[in-house]
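Q: What structure does this chain adopt?
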Amino acid sequence: MEYDKIKQLMEDMSNSKLSAIDIDFPDGTKISMKKDGIQETKSIVIEPEIESNCKIENKIEQQEVVERKGNIVKSPMVGTFYLKPSPTSEPYVEVGKTVKKGDTLCIIEAMKLMNEIESEFSGTIKEILVKDEEPVEYGKPLFIIE
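A:
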């Protein structure tokens, strides 16, 4: 390897945030560089972020448990959620509408098949938790029925 390329590599290393690098070239040349005197500040910065993220996640989970009172209808499959049978039709249900057990709530498209999702409960739609045409996962809450 040429001296100029090695010198450029050293300058690039000193200007980067890397603390060490090992390079093996196909011709058998090996270069190993390590910066001296680097203080580990990342652990000081990262640990409080992790703690605050955990606190935020715990608060979100607690809010979801508190806010979601009632019967929750969950997605039985992975697919795309549709509130209407066609783009020009009225939605199957709206917030405040009374439904009976067995009424169609929505459609989930999975592998080009349109699957009607029926209500497991009788009651009033309190909340629709998914937007029209949004992808859903198995077990994702779709509706709250009281």
